[in-house]
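Subject: Protein record for review, amino acid sequence with backbone structure tokens
Category: Structural biology, sequence-to-fold work with a learned token vocabulary.
Format: Residues in single-letter code; tokens as whole numbers, each standing for a residue.
Body of memo: The sequence and its backbone structure tokens, given next.
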Amino acid sequence: MSLLYGDGFASNTALTNSTYIFCSLFKKSPVVSAKNLILPATTLKNYCYRALFSWCTTLVAAPDLPATTLATGCYWYMFEQCAIMKAPVLDAATLVNECYGHMFEGCALLNTIECYATGGFSSSKCLEDWTKTVAATGMFVKSGSASSWNTGTSGIPTGWTVVNDVLLYAPEITFNGETIELECATQDAQIYYRLDQTGTFQLYDMPISILEDTVVETYSSYQGHVSTTVMQSCVYV
């Protein structure tokens, strides 16, 4: 991102409108670790990271991939033939055409993948051979609400242990001037809140009425997991 924005690049979360913007940038290079490489873009462009580390056979540590909105071919062949053992966490909920196709093909040491996709499985080539020739055994962590996964090189690797987890979202706050409403995108999650940063958090079960300016703090909880706490000032009208 510093190639696009110079100093302060880490605060930029948007790529330019160009396609193939970083395609094959490190391909076949002798890089060993990319764990400190910052790729802060949260919404991607078509083929932006295509084959970024393809055939970097000495690469053992991948960078974080924080994007939650994918684009056509964004990670196509990204880590082909690398030596990573653990994949970056893939938080995007909806797959798109070619997004993860061949992403980890030939990563013979890879034995851990966390992918929280819950939709878009019918997108063209979205998972085509993405785990071809990975380790024979490993752990695949997926969303408990995802039921469309296939088994094999274009899905969950055969022989791997599957763990159902949940992507826990922080609550969203809606305020209309005298009533605060809280909701969480994670199904069945419980929401806790407190007002004016005092007292203990309590379970949310109905809209909160206020009679004066109020600060609300809230977090969600599900199956032992706790989200980040969000805070908002609500001006009484």
Notes: The mean pLDDT is 93.
